[in-house]
Write a structure and sequence with these properties.
With 131 residues, the chain is mostly helical. The chain contains 7 helices and no strands. 58% of the residues lie in helices and 0% in strands.
């Protein structure tokens, strides 16, 4: 099986475990809470992405640590290589606890569990392009 065919199988399995209602709810949550940083199309290029990059650069001017300690920019959900290592549980943890060192807030006390999983389903839609 080619890599493309494997991803088609993964996409089919993920989509079969998602409902149109869950994706619609995830799309709405994403637009309201995530798109400003991660971008409307999930490419990590939202309106606040440049501000986060500048904040990361400024933090390096006052720290003696390595570049890994600087604030990271928003994740690009369209990056296949990066998303292939992003298990649903990892995304859930990032949403619950926030993206430490990234400026991403902790959404665990704001979103209900079902909303988090709807959001995760929508985030994968950037990768799988399902309807």
């Amino acid at each position: 099986m080619s890599d493309s065919e494997k991803w088609d199988v993964v996409s089919y399995i993920w989509q079969s475990n998602s409902t149109p209602e869950a994706l619609a709810n995830g799309r709405e949550l994403y637009a309201q809470n995530c798109a400003a940083c991660h971008g409307e199309n999930g490419a990590g290029d939202g309106v606040f992405a440049d501000d986060l990059a500048r904040a990361g650069e400024a933090s390096m001017q006052t720290m003696n640590g390595s570049t890994e300690m600087s604030m990271q920019g928003p994740v690009d959900f369209t990056d296949s290589k990066r998303m292939s290592g992003a298990a649903p549980a990892l995304l859930q943890g990032k949403i619950l606890r926030g993206g430490m060192g990234t400026g991403m807030p902790m959404w665990g006390s704001i979103f209900k569990e079902e909303q988090i999983w709807d959001l995760i389903a929508y985030i994968y839609s950037f990768q799988f392009h399902y309807q």
